[in-house]
Amino acid sequence: MNVQRLGATARLAFGNRASQVYLALVAVATVYVTVDTVFVHHEDASLAGVWLFLLASPTMFGFLMAARLFGDAVAGSAWFLYPALVASVLIQSLALGLFVRLLRGRPHAAHPQGA
After folding, report:
1. Contact at 8 Å (CB) between 84 and 63?
2. What is this structure's pTM?
3. Who's near 53: CB < 8 A, 6+ residues apart?
4. DSSP assignment of 72-86, as one string?
């Protein structure tokens, strides 16, 4: 992947208002979950982490279903859940950017024949 494509992909994922609002919501939920997990004592388990999974759905649930093929130990492990959560958020941010571009009706960049 060349640098121009990487830049265009980054603009789609981070350079529009819809993706920025989505990523801000994810950041706020992440801070909330972190504070709740680290600083608040609960008698029972807290359901604060559910907000992150809801914001990362449906792609997160796709990752979880794929992980189930390798067993419950993989699907429930931190080494799988955290990268899958980050990947889900980035995929959805990119999808929002593509959707915004589709709604705006911007034409695609013209490529010369054979390029």
Report:
1. yes
2. 0.78
3. 60, 61, 85
4. HHHHT-HHHHHHHHH
Structural contact between residues 13 and 19, judged by C-beta atoms closer than 8 angstroms: yes
Residue-wise burial string across 63-93, b where 16 or more C-beta atoms lie within 10 A, e elsewhere = bbeebeeeeeeebeeeebbeebbeebbbbbb
Token output for 53: 């999974």
**115 residues of the chain, pLDDT tens digit each:** 588 888 888 888 888 999 999 999 999 999 999 998 888 887 777 788 888 989 999 999 888 888 888 877 777 788 888 999 999 999 999 999 999 988 888 556 656 665 5
Residue pair 30/52 in contact by the 8 Å Cβ criterion: yes
